[in-house]
Amino acid sequence: xxxxxxxxxxxxxxxxxxxxxxxxxxxxxxxxxxxxxxxxxxxxxxxxxxxxxxxxxxxxxxxxxxxxxxxxxxxxxxxxxxxxxxxxxxxxxxxxxxxxxxxxxxxxxxxxxxxxxxxxxxxxxxxxxxxxxxxxxxxxxxxxxxxxxxxxxxxxxxxxxxxxxxxxxxxxxxxxxxxxxxxxxxxxxxxxxxxxxxxxxxxxxxxxxxxxxxxxxxxxxxxxxxxxxxxxxxxxxxxxxxxxxxxxxxxxxxxxxxxxxxxxxxxxxxxxxxxxxxxxxxxxxxxxxxxxxxxxxxxxxxxxxxxxxxxxxxxxxxxxxxxxxx
Length: 326
Prior knowledge:
Blueprint: H1 3-15, E1 29-34, H2 42-54, E2 64-69, H3 77-86, E3 91-95, H4 98-107, E4 113-117, E5 137-141, H5 148-158, E6 164-169, H6 176-189, E7 193-198, H7 202-214, E8 219-222, H8 226-230, H9 232-241, E9 246-248, H10 251-255, E10 260-264, H11 266-281, E11 297-302, H12 303-309, H13 315-320, E12 323-325
Parallel strand pairs: 1-2, 1-3, 3-4, 4-5, 6-7, 6-8, 8-9, 9-10, 11-12
Antiparallel strand pairs: 10-11
Helix pairs in contact: 2-11, 3-4, 5-6
């Protein structure tokens, strides 16, 4: 080959288009919107990620999760939801009760939403039907708001001689009106008096805990609400320090030292929510996924706490319990 021809061949080689390097695919982004706080929701996050993993999604491997926490301050939720929409997330998990769900639904009518609800999602106008949600949202309901009368009855069974029960509730929680009405109706049937205390922020909570002692209530019922869940440790410590028997709505309260609890397995619902988010990322439509309802309600007794309070738990209640912590 002549030198001139060799140069031409080399020049031709240089002029061939270079194949572009393969770019890593962009991972889908999940928006996680909660009315609660990350510290007391670690077990719920673990359950949520377990559900995602069951359908093939692992944070940092093939998905990104953007977390937004309201820390019990519901008024922050609309801005947090709007921020996730601006971030163009692929799906929003709106958890921590109807307050988060409503904020997400108000922020977008196109991005898929997997919500949580403590009441009837149809009555709360989150979906049109449980079996066929329609629209861009589906999720799960815990039915915690409907269980307040049952909890009051269990507290009465434990302490039949107590005739005055303190009720701690969050007036900022939309379901509060229905919760209190159901409790008052249930109290009439078993001849119990209720003393109601507001706790929608930290100042109110401090004042109400003080008033509980001043009013000499014989027992305490903590009404289900995300804000109160974020203050779970403080409420449990107050009850322990003042030897006040109390009933709560989630198992986590009894595990952390509360006396008794009755309610759904919230971790199971979060696991199912993670699965729904993963299925939507895989192409499912929210309208094709029915709203999930709890199938198990756990009655948990902490015998260690009962002993510290000087209470003897009736054998009938112990036999009825799904879990006894010793």
